[in-house]
């Protein structure tokens, strides 16, 4: 097990009808900017629940944060924060709204001239403007971590940021919110959380026995509840385990003391930036090729995953490892998610070269668990995913 | 899954040679009371590591906190805190030293006349004097939770306390510390952590699929590393997984959203108070009888545990459930821990009645997952454990 530090101070308020508990969490004298996305919260009743819980607090609203939260839109919200002296942010939404709010939390206290530098120069945020979240879409885990991914349409870039100042003060998780989520987005959430676990697990074995078992626990739970969630989002047992699994998949716990990979995300982000493919679907496109290309390095862990998560009992290490990749592909398909780039765009030719060139231009010379996937190797992985 | 709230702000600093990182964690202008136990830290080098890391900080020392931290001893330390205007406590020890430090953290800011009231009246501590820990004995999980158990020899009582103000600011976990722990205490730590998981898991099934799998993960890991830890405490992989499992067994995570039981601990504490039996060993004495007495209520979960943790594949639910209890007893025996009260004292006659009467006197009318174990049922469980 590697040395690690772990601290996650976010307060989770989980369960049926928990949105009303929001009223206990807002600091006194808060001047709140309530941030949300495309307005679905006004149709599904969540907006009304939030407003009721906020009571007489001072609230300004900012809607319209898009999926893959867009820098240009966020700059408009930043202007409001500054002119209105906002001192508390409340994100009501999924990962995009929460990530956008994290950017605003950092940017509000950033002293540099250009907030994009926080992303471009990878500036760690030690202290941000305090914020809380009401989660409306289980998937990214952003509700209990300190990271965010922001998109800039102008330059077709999608970059990460983070730091200990960006943990939500609180996050409210009511699993009943999933009843109004379209099946496509539920499938995305399941695939996204599942792949988050893989990124932190599918590496060389490192003797972190407990972390491995926790990772396997989350994947087993997602596999168990996925068909129930898709068939009947009102199944509270399935919904609650889905929601908690998504949070636990990326709240820092399972990555502590282990090597992690994250090449699937790094490459997948480019597919979203280039083609607008849903984030989760880009992961399902890249993950199988990544594991096949790096089969020798990862086969021991792939076999452990095959045995423990997919209950594969026959065959040698190579057989089990290979079948585990196939099982993973079949799982994505069962969610209704295609796993080839050509399923999403006819213009896939040249994509591998484009992504490889972008990584070279950014100086990203080595991705993955050993930071050894050079741009030419990334090119091969993307081609395998056509 | 039940509704829950979860917040655990303790910073964990885990790994080889991590004690030296203590220097980064002590607040400026701290006037520190360094608390420890019987003095083993002066023999095994931990004391010197701590003192080196503290550098020129102002430190007063208080040693001699006994196993089952004793109220009368702690009052002496409380006097020092008050007369010396101590503003930070540093526990260097196992669960007893850390629990004692938590009592002091609460008592230092308690405004009532008699600090024992915090325990006797179950007063929740919202704010305590800040403290950190350097863990020297993996077992209780006290390093990452907000609970403590304090003993009062005068009245042969052992009572619990807690509250959100009692999380350590930080805890330093260097798995290398176990190399100097006697085998008896390593066995106790393994049994203690294992039983902590059982208390939060062995109830009626509640549909918390992820929490169940996390609990099973911890137990599987403890079972896997136990023989290695006992055979060779310098086996770092075994030591680190043992240490992290103990912390995760009782840091709040696996108890969220599920019913819990804790009757084994409530009864076990009385055996320590009456006979001075090691805490972990009282759990090994009571747990098997508790699960047999409550077999009908718990057999579904016992069977799940038998299948997933002990890999029992044959038999019906009752068979698997019963065999799972036997496997648990065998596990304690493999640790060198006896599981009958008569193994520890010849004076066991009358113990069941004494404990039952104590619970009646305290008004504890119902223990366990359904709070339905009345004192007469407790009496039967203890008799089964003779």
From TrEMBL, chains A, B:
InterPro entries the record matches: ADH_Fe/GldA (IPR001670), ADH_Fe_C (IPR056798), ADH_Fe_CS (IPR018211), BDH-like (IPR044731)
GO molecular function: alcohol dehydrogenase (NADP+) activity; butanol dehydrogenase (NAD+) activity; metal ion binding; methylglyoxal reductase (NADPH) (acetol producing) activity
Family, per entry: Belongs to the iron-containing alcohol dehydrogenase family.
Coiled coil: none
Protein name: Iron-containing alcohol dehydrogenase
Assigned keywords, A-Z: Oxidoreductase
GO CC terms in record: cytosol
Span of domain Fe-containing alcohol dehydrogenase-like C-terminal: 189-386
Protein source organism: Bizionia algoritergicola
């Amino acid at each position: 097990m590697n040395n690690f530090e772990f601290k996650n101070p976010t307060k989770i308020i989980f369960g049926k009808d928990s949105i009303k508990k929001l009223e206990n969490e807002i600091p006194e004298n808060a001047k709140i900017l309530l941030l949300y996305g495309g307005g679905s919260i006004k149709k599904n009743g969540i907006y009304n629940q939030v407003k009721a819980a906020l009571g007489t607090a001072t609230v300004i609203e900012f809607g319209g944060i898009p999926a893959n939260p867009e820098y240009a839109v966020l700059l408009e919200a930043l202007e409001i924060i500054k002119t209105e002296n906002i001192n508390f942010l409340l994100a009501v939404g999924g990962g995009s709204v929460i990530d956008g709010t994290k950017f605003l939390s950092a940017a509000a206290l950033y002293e540099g001239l250009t907030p994009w530098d926080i992303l471009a120069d990878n500036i760690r945020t030690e202290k941000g403007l305090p914020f809380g979240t009401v989660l409306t879409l289980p998937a990214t885990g952003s509700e209990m971590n300190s990271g965010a991914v922001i998109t800039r349409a102008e330059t077709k870039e999608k970059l990460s940021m983070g730091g200990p100042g960006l943990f939500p003060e609180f996050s409210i998780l009511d699993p009943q919110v999933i009843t109004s989520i379209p099946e496509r987005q539920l499938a995305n959430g399941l695939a996204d959380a599942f792949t988050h676990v893989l990124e932190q697990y599918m590496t060389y074995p490192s003797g972190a026995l407990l972390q491995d078992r926790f990772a396997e626990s989350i994947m087993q739970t997602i596999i168990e509840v996925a068909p129930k969630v898709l068939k009947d989002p009102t199944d509270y047992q399935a919904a609650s385990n889905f929601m908690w699994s998504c949070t636990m998949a990326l709240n820092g716990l399972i990555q502590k003391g282990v090597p992690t990979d994250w090449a699937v995300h790094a490459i997948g982000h480019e597919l979203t930036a280039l083609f607008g493919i849903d984030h989760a679907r880009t992961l399902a496109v890249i993950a199988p090729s990544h594991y096949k290309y790096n089969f020798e390095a990862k086969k021991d862990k792939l076999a452990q995953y095959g045995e423990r998560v997919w209950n594969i009992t026959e065959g040698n290490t190579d057989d089990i490892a290979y079948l585990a990749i196939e099982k993973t592909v079949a799982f994505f398909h069962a969610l209704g998610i295609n796993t080839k780039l050509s399923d999403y765009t006819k213009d896939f030719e040249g994509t591998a070269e484009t992504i490889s060139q972008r990584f070279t231009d950014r100086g990203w010379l080595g991705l993955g668990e050993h930071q050894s996937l050079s741009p030419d190797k990334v090119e091969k992985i993307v081609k395998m995913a056509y």
